[in-house]
Amino acid sequence: MEPGDPVSEPGPEAEGPPSPDLMAAPPPADIRPTYPPTIDPALDAAIARDLRRGRRVALVTWLIALFHGALGFVAIHQAGLFAEVDRSLATTPQIEGYGAGFLVLRVALIGAIVVGAALAYRWLRAAVVTAETLAGFGAIEGGSRSESPSGSGLPRRTLRDLGILFRPAGATEIRSIWDVRVGGGRRRATGAAVAIVLAAVVGLAGAVASAVAGDAEAARFARWLTGIDAGLWIVGTLLLGAVAADVAWRIAVAGRAVGHYAPLVDAPGRTLVRLAPALLLFVGLLPIAAAAPALQDIPCLATSLHCAKVVVPVEHGGPAVQPVIDIVYGVHRAAGAAHGTLVVAVGGPGGSGLASADWQIDSFDPRLVQTYDIVFWDQRGVGRSDGHDCPVAGGIYSAVVANDTTARAFVDACLREADTGSSGLGRYSTRQAAEDLESIRARLGVAKFALYGESYGTELAQVYAAAHPDRLSALILDGSVDLTLTANQFWAAAARSFDATLKATFDDCGQDYLCRRDISDPAAAYDRLLERLGRKPEVISYRDVTGQMGDHRLEGPLLQRAVAALMYEPSGRALVLRAVASAAAGDDVPIARLADLFGPGIGGAVSTFAYHAVLCADYRVSPTADTSDFAAVVRAGRTSGALTTRTGDVYFSQLPCLYWPDQPTADVRPAPLTDQPEPIFVLGATLDPITPIEMGRAIAARARDGYLIESSGGPHVTFGRGHDCVDRPIVDFLVDGTLPTWRTIHCSDVVASPYIAVHPIMASGYTDALDAMHSTEDELFADPLFSLTRGQSGLTIGCRYGGFVTVDSTDVKDEFGFEGCEFASGMPLDGTGTYDPGANHLELDLTFPDGDLHYTSDTLRHVTGTFRDESVDQGG
């Protein structure tokens, strides 16, 4: 039956007669309704039709409410994602991905609304006619018609007459369970209308807020508005469903009042019962949808860190909608209530803060670790933060002479290997990385923090301090770079400083009896070695870390890079002296091992790509308008005296930047830090090769509240190495707030670690067991892998003539496993050993073809057992 059809003609949708069960037991005659005198089949069918359609409309409102709830969950989840988004962003690809799902849900919602509206329109037009008929019999209040529905038909009604559906209806006198009377529904309908209007207004506000949002906070607010709007739409839609059910029930009870069948199941129940389950479910799930990602949600390489991420724009200061980068950071929590936060900016550039966190934390003063939250992160382009690398290209470049041709070829190869493309590389600049740090600070909710930078990290720290001076409680610069210097000035100073450190290393040999005995003039021996390799590279055979024999090419460029890399540490300088002494005695294996291990330049802990990407984004290398003016760079190097030193190749470290895409357009350097509100601690060593002490002195002298902690001799970075003179002033200020009494503090350090003598390489060269075991001890501790990575577990040391030694380290001792290790030819060693660095005590239990020895070494050395089939008990 279509809307407006005469009720006297049953429509095609008319239902059959009531069920046999109900018809089998009619109510007693004395309580049956007395009007109308006969049952009109057409009216009976119209009532059944309108009840059925009303149920459908109510059901569709549940579906619409479900879609609104799903949209709300998506919006609130997007708002939760904004918790890890930099404040300058308005969206991210991940959030937009959820937006695609949001769009699908919205299309489905619109479809459901269209279907529901069509069903409601069709239903209401017919229901008004039915209600008018029932009103004519007095079953709906206000009725005035008296003609029978079986007549020629009722006039067609419009939506203007909907009011009749909300009038009181039913029996005028309650005489039995068949008689039901219900009040008017205007208040419920008005409530639904108000909820719908309010939802529409809030939805419009959310749409406008989303359209104009220019940062994460505004976008998050817009998402919350959308989520709240979803809740309002749930209320409004369910209220509409309640109104539909109420109208259907009013028709049902009116029909019952005139003797027509209408099941009691159409009773709508209380509105609160309809609303409560949906709203409770929606509100209960909101915290889950809105929850910000927890710190431990991101797996962290460092075992002592809790890691998370912050989503930052590719270009800080750029548009609010742009590509993004995930910056991963980790926090080592204080043992108790945190006194403050210390952020560590590691060196490189290209070093991973997360990878170095564990050993750095172990090196810090316990007072600092116990009272400070300590933060590490991977800078953009490194490790977990959109990391890229080109180790193969870097290894090839390290083995050749640096010039315009090789540098250009390296850049092309590196960009291909790193798979970054050749545009947009300015995103790796220190300025952008400093803003990433600000994003981390905001994500952590820390108002102020202490910033410690080491080596390149001092560049990042100074850039951050200049941009956000109000965010720092202290600035600590260790191995400081003077940012006011141009690229040519910096690398010329570094080349001269490397040369000075190498000269001091050679001179220090004369202060050590064992070194002086092995080689009287290490500088001359080194020059002769370079001259020999310059004429013709050599191939040296020795066992690698797996114990396998192999040929290794020894070339001048690799050797020079290895020597430069070993100048950073006193222990590395001692290794150079020992290798030069061995080469002077005709044994090139030690120097070849150093070239193999350290000649490739940038190690595995530093990204070769990020190293160059950062430096080339920060510095304009060419001093002329021609961005690739190689000749001008060479002229500047000669003028500065850098190219006349033994370490002149250090000056050419900057050459790849001549051919790097996206170079700075001008050589404008940052202004010096002169008026920072926080105290600035500058740490440096007089033999720091890469950041000469003069740079640190200049930074400290310019600062309004600057303190210089200067070590004589010493390594490149001095904090956290157990030197109380260096560490105490920093820790005292961070923990207790106590500033040093003096603006300059002088600390003593060494030029090189104690020299380890060269021993015979054949077993026949040892006359007794004590000498043999002393040689084994020295070869173990002189191994460059063990010497420079002390404390690293899972290390394998290849022995010169076969076999290997495994090293497993804990906080308290090193454990050794010897498997056929031949430091000296003809004496393969098997067994175990331990070393306690705190007590400086070594124990070895070793067997070999003609011996079995127990060896101890601390202040004295002692050996017992059998050696060459004879019992021994020696000490000394």
Q: How do you describe this structure in short?
A:
By secondary structure, the protein is α/β, with parallel strands linked by helices. The protein has 24 helices and 21 strands.
Keywords:
single chain, 876 residues, alpha/beta, nine-stranded mixed sheet, 24 helices, 21 strands, elongated, disordered N terminus
What does the secondary structure layout of this molecule look like, with pairings?
Blueprint: H1 20-24, H2 41-81, H3 93-136, E1 169-170, E2 181-182, H4 186-212, H5 216-257, H6 271-290, E3 306-313, E4 324-332, E5 340-345, H7 353-363, H8 366-371, E6 372-377, H9 391-398, H10 404-418, H11 430-444, E7 449-454, H12 456-467, E8 472-478, H13 487-509, H14 513-518, H15 522-535, E9 538-543, E10 549-554, H16 556-566, H17 570-584, H18 589-598, H19 608-618, H20 630-640, E11 680-685, H21 693-702, E12 706-712, H22 724-736, E13 744-748, H23 769-782, H24 784-788, E14 795-798, E15 804-809, E16 814-821, E17 829-836, E18 841-848, E19 851-857, E20 861-867, E21 870-875
Parallel strand pairs: 5-6, 5-7, 7-8, 8-11, 11-12, 12-13
Antiparallel strand pairs: 1-2, 3-4, 4-6, 9-10, 14-15, 15-16, 16-17, 17-18, 18-19, 19-20, 20-21
Helix pairs in contact: 2-3, 2-5, 2-6, 4-5, 5-6, 9-10, 11-12, 13-20, 15-17, 16-18, 17-18
